Amino acid sequence: MKTLSLCFRIHQPMLLKIYRFFNMGIDHNYLDDARNRALMQRASAQCFLPMNKMLLDLINATDGKLRVSFYLSGLVVEQMRSYAPDALQSFRDLAATGCVEFVAGTYSASLAALADEDEFRLEAAKHAAMIKEEFGQTPTAFFNTALLYSDVIGETVADMGYHTMLAEGAKHLLGWKSPNYVYANPMNQKLRLMLRNYRLSDDIMFRFSDRRWSEWPLTAEKYIDWIDGDRGEVVNICTDYSVFGLWQKADSGIFDFFRAFVMQSIASDRIRFATVSDNAAAHQPIGVLYANNEVTWADEERDLSAWLGNELQNEAFGKLYAQREKVHSLGDHDMEHVWEFLQTADHFYWMATKWFADDGRQSGENPYPSSYEAFINYMNVLSDFINELSRRTVEKEKTRTEVTHV
Amino acid sequence: MRVLMFGWEFPPHIAGGLGTASYGLTRGLAHNGVEVIFVVPKAYGDEDQRFARIVNASDVEALYSGEEYTNELWKKVSFIQINSNLVPYSSPEEFSTLGETAVKDGEKKIRTGDAWRERYNFSGTYGTNLMEEVGRYAMVAAQVARDLEGQFDVIHAHDWLTYYAGIAAKTVSGKPLVVHVHATEFDRSGENVNPTVYAIERAGMETADRVITVSNLTRNIAITKYGINPDKVVTVHNAVRFAENSDEKIQRGLDDKIVTFLGRITYQKGPDYFVEAAAKVLKRVSNVRFVMAGSGDMMHHVVRRVAQLGISDRFHFTGFLKGPEVNRMFAMSDVYVMPSVSEPFGISPLEAMKSNVPVIISKQSGVAEILSYALKVDYWDVDAMADAIYALITYPALARMFSHKGFEEVTGLKWDTAAAKVKKVYEDMVATH
User: Fold this and answer.
1) A227 and A122 in a common domain
2) How far apart are CA A74 and CA B134, in angstroms?
3) Helix (H, G, I), strand (E, B) or coil at B39
4) Which of B297, B312, B318, B332 is best to mutate for the A interface (most A CBs within 10 A)?
């Protein structure tokens, strides 16, 4: 008997339009609205609406035995408000069942934890406020962007009042240990760590419809056997929500698989579902887990190299966060909005050069033909943003002095 | 005076300065009363034809049927076939077999009639099968020269791509040939010259009755590196054409000074030195932005270097710019820099000057020979370049002087004058021919 937590990430970056040098100083609308709308509506139609409906049906059919946790970035919620309000409503309907947990994270799906602790706290606070407003919950578990975790980040998260944090069950973190137990942060042992079982997660996230995979086709029975047979007490399966209907298309059978998996798990009494917070609270940590270096769920390395692995990424990241004080002291809502969507980690991910150009990982959702174009476009937007920050700051000062003189 | 001119590009379809220069020269020649038939591969149909009759090489049907005719032609173009080995028949192998037997044995063609009537379709840009096209173009050139017999007095070929065409036309028609050197292989590839290209260039210059170079810098290369007799090499500097002033109001959104590099981002153009100079200037002043407009094989390298130097919020890339965007870029610029490592002429500083932009050019450029109101630095001297940029953006009086005087100076550089010199070359050739 295992207690299983399903945690799904829902996020869509706000894509920048092609912003050229000639736009600078003149045009301060940076987003590709048409594309963002199209992507959001496609995700809504193919993934959010059908999957949420299925979850709702399954919760009702099992008398609430199915439990699920969600991390929704603030930016994806904003885009749902604009382009897919019915999808947002379907998440609210799930919240109303009491069987669905909304975990906290960063508002902008940012890597603020690496740049500035205060900004990280601000991102988390803003996100928690959004969850409260939209779904009526006060989150107790924390899902940092890309499961970015280290001892220090964990301590900060604990200090913010969270009891539970998700992290990648990376081999270099665990060594011989199993991810299927609750662990504790060494600096603040009250913080319970729930580790993602990446093998079982990747089975459905990447391999489900791969016919070259020796285990294809994956059936509910087989998957239940794997989960039940894995050493440990708690299992965390944590994937991007896009797996359902977007990465794995409906005709791959992913929806049917999921329904069968849930029904059979409950019927066979071999797997019990619990939200991340409940699951962590129900189990004593079996030990502390040390993470001196940052761990993420990205690639084989499971480190920062996907976002901050070359000079382009470091330059863009550094130049962005150097603006922090200016942004907050200006207190201009428009500028704060730009500040948020520029922080999204995806922008830096697209500047990576560690893969071969034709690697499938980079394609698909990447709007840029190359890392260099990603960098140039981002820097053009950022340069104009910096310029506009200075201009508005000067203007504000001027108004203030005029008011004092009057 | 009537001239049959072979080019590789013509506005608006241009990949480099060659098209712009041929157009300016053609206009100038027309004003000097010279008739020009300009042969260019793949004319798109929207070229400006007021001053030149454009013969599209792709439209010429080379007739290779008829025994007498075929044999005669084969003998006259034999030179081409041996060196360039490529003509677009059904397959290269078939061609070489047929070609060799035809030339060596004087045998009659095996195939006659429509099978030989082909319309060669040129891609018209610098591509992978360039050598093949150079050879094909030469074949067509021979046909053009034959078709237009009696309609021209001299042949004029621009750059190595068309030298074989010029030679072929000369062989067929017996008219004198002038080759126009806009750039040499040494300018394009440094010391790593492509031996095939070098051989074509040398053959062209040797066969020509006169060689026109765009600067004394290039003239020296022709004499020392290609061993051409100095007596037949003449320098005619390029000029710049004044387009009707567009009154388009450029909206300038940035208050900062803008320093521009515009050109292909390749080794020859020295983009690296521009970046290093930019970093030096940015250490001193903050109200300046640098723009690199263009694309090229060194682009990624340059982007990385800019990121390493930590100046990417002040150093911008625009990608490749086309006609109106180029004008817009000039109009937004406060300083134009051409740090070329090797530049036979370099027409872009003249275009900047006519937009009232002060220019900094490398001493290693041909255009440095004719300009007084341009700041000249060694391309490798990053400190001097940074100094010059700093001075032009910091001392308005200096910038104003270079802007006004530079404009006057460039106004005096007329294609009509350059064309008159070219016409003189034609006349000398015809007289001594």
Assistant:
1) yes
2) 59
3) strand
4) B312
Confirm whether pTM is higher than 0.80. Answer: yes
Q: How many Å apart are CA A329 and CA A48, to the nearest integer?
A: 38
User: Kind of pairing, strands B35-40 and B2-6?
Assistant: parallel
Give the separation between CA A59 and CA A248, rounded to whole angstroms: 22
- Does a cis peptide bond (omega within 30 degrees of 0) precede residue A179? no
A–B interface: beta-carbon pairs under 8 A: 60
User: What residues of chain A lie within 8 A of the CB of B318, using their CB?
Assistant: 20-22
User: Which residue, B255, B287, B334, B289, is CA-closest to A26?
Assistant: B255
What is the set of domains in chain B, with CATH numbers? 2-239+419-432 (3.40.50.2000), 257-411 (3.40.50.2000)
- In chain B, the residue whose alpha carbon lies closest to the alpha carbon of A20 is B318
Contacts of B300 in chain A (CB under 8 A): 372
Is residue A297 included in any domain, yes or no? no
- For residue A288, tell me if it sits in a domain: no
What's the CA gap between A162 and A138, in Å, rounded? Answer: 10
Amino acid at B22: S
Give me the residue label for tokens 């500035």.
A116
What's the rounded Cα separation, in Å, for the pair A208 and A186?
36
User: What tens digit of pLDDT does each residue of A50-85 get?
Assistant: 999 999 999 999 999 999 999 999 999 999 999 999
Q: Mean pLDDT of all residues in chain B?
A: 81
Residues A365, A236 share a domain? no
pLDDT tens-place string over residues B220-246: 999 999 999 999 999 999 988 766 555
Query: Which alpha helices (DSSP H) does B285-414 contain, by range?
Result: 299-309, 323-332, 348-354, 382-394, 396-411
The answer to whether the CB of B363 falls within 8 A of the CB of B285 is: no
Distance of alpha carbon A70 from alpha carbon A100, whole angstroms: 7
- Mark whether A264 and A346 lie in a shared domain: no
